[in-house]
TrEMBL record:
This is ANP1 protein. GO terms for molecular function: alpha-1,6-mannosyltransferase activity. Belongs to the ANP1/MMN9/VAN1 family. Its main location: Golgi. It is found in: Golgi apparatus membrane. GO terms for biological process: cell wall mannoprotein biosynthetic process; protein N-linked glycosylation. Keywords: Golgi apparatus, Membrane, Signal-anchor, Transmembrane, Transmembrane helix.
Length: 411
């Protein structure tokens, strides 16, 4: 095919001779050695040209198939042609791309509760149930302001319910005062939740602290805590810090101190103190406040078996009707001893609790019904233990509660 076609002419002296004959004549006229080299050169040229055709540019020719319309191809030709030209990629791992904004993705595997919470920027949800709490709120917010855990990692949430005083107005005023500051005091967010349970019980100390009042009272408080928890807990929270508003003093580093213990559920000792005039002198009187944090004892377990309690009974501490014989954390502890000493507990009070958020997420909350003859925070402790979580107390770490003789508290 390199050779000129028969119809063309050499523009030379031998123009009269047909081209093919001229070539043959030329070849036979040269020496053997030259002829040999000529054949090698022509062969190499053909070989190179052929390789170039079937090489990088080959597809261009194959794409067009044989030089005939598809209708004229034999089935074999068509098969060959289509087999060469329809690449099939089996990709079983094509990523699924979700663009619809109604489809949300939350990865709870990334939400951890660790002792390194501060470095890892773990988020804390601080929950306070409020009922006729106007009196306590200014102190509560003074204490919150002084918390040393970074405030931009803390969300506050309040449940206001069955309230007859100015709780809502004072709350709104205090929150505005704090959240509009331009320093590091404002918290990440604040949520106020309103929910009435039509609890008609008196807030009077004597009446609401009687044994008969305890069952209904603890049930309704448990319900309030659960509404607050289920509304305020968000996927980003690692820790839930329950804090009642009638605390009058607590260490500013309490969140870090508690997180460092890396416990599922942890409570401090709750005491109160007041100044009293005795013989013309002011004396500081300390008292043990919270009898809801306790350990079961051999006696208490025996008593409960002996009483054959109906499932509907809710036990409460400190009443002559049922002397349980439990070990109270309030009676243990010393302010001078090691603050980090831990003891296991079977029941806890609700004044100040730090909980790993996954405990709540697993469904451990505050029973508003008798759970193993306990309700609310004591029921919570029993439920957490039943589910295999650890419930602990710090007998030497004291958080000060308002003295209930001074002013009715809601602990
Ligand atoms: C999703 O959005 C991106 C960016 O707008 C777009 O490139 C992609 O094709 C979309 N994917 C689907 C499955 O709609
Ligand atoms: C609570 O009491 C108010 C007023 O008596 C009534 O309007 C409301 O329906 C009650 N709510 C519930 C949940 O019982």
């Amino acid at each position: 095919m390199l050779l000129p076609n028969g119809g063309e002419h050499w523009k030379s002296a031998k123009a009269q001779i047909p081209a093919s004959k001229a070539v043959i004549h030329y070849i036979s006229s040269i020496s053997r050695t030259r002829r040999y080299f000529l054949f090698v050169a022509v062969g190499a040229t053909i070989l190179l040209f052929w390789r170039w055709l079937s090489g990088h540019d080959a597809r261009r020719y194959e794409c067009f198939g044989p030089p005939k319309p598809p209708m004229d191809m034999t089935p074999n030709e068509r098969d060959r042609w289509s087999a060469d030209n329809t690449p099939v990629f089996f990709n079983h791992h094509t990523p699924i791309e979700v663009n619809d904004t109604t489809i949300k993705h939350i990865n709870l595997n990334l939400v951890k509760s660790t002792p390194d919470a501060r470095q890892l920027q773990e988020r804390v949800l601080l929950l306070s149930p409020l009922r006729d709490a106007a009196y306590y709120l200014p102190t509560h917010f003074d204490l919150l302001t002084s918390l040393t855990y970074p405030h931009h990692l803390i969300d506050l949430a309040f449940l206001v319910g069955d309230t007859s005083d100015d709780t809502m107005a004072v709350l709104a005023k205090e929150l505005t005062r704090i959240q509009t500051r331009d320093d590091t005091v404002p918290f990440h967010s604040v949520t106020i939740i309103e929910k009435d349970f039509n609890v008609t019980m008196s807030q009077d100390v004597d009446e609401r602290h009687g044994f008969k009042a305890q069952g209904p009272r603890r049930k309704s408080m448990g319900r309030a805590r659960n509404y607050l928890l289920s509304t305020a807990l968000k996927p980003e929270h690692s820790w839930v810090y329950w804090r009642d508003v009638d605390i009058v003093d607590s260490p500013p580093s309490i969140i870090e101190d508690f997180i460092a213990h890396d416990r599922d559920v942890l409570v401090p000792n709750i005491w109160f103190h007041r100044y009293e005039e005795q013989d013309g002198k002011m004396v500081d009187i300390e008292g043990r406040f919270d009898y809801n944090s306790w350990q079961e004892t051999a006696t208490s377990l025996k008593n409960q078996r002996k009483w054959k309690l109906s499932r509907d009974i809710i036990l409460a501490e400190g009443y002559k009707e049922y002397k349980t014989g439990r070990n109270y954390m309030a009676k243990m502890g010393s302010r001078k001893a090691d603050k980090d000493e831990e003891i296991p507990l079977d029941g806890i009070g609700g004044v100040n609790i730090l909980v790993k958020a996954d405990v709540h997420r697993s469904g451990i909350n505050f029973p508003c019904y008798p759970f193993e003859n306990q309700a609310e925070t004591e029921g919570f402790a029993k439920m957490a233990k039943r589910a295999g979580y650890g419930v602990w107390g710090l007998p030497n770490y004291v958080v000060w509660h308002i003295d209930t003789e001074e002013k009715p508290g809601n602990g």
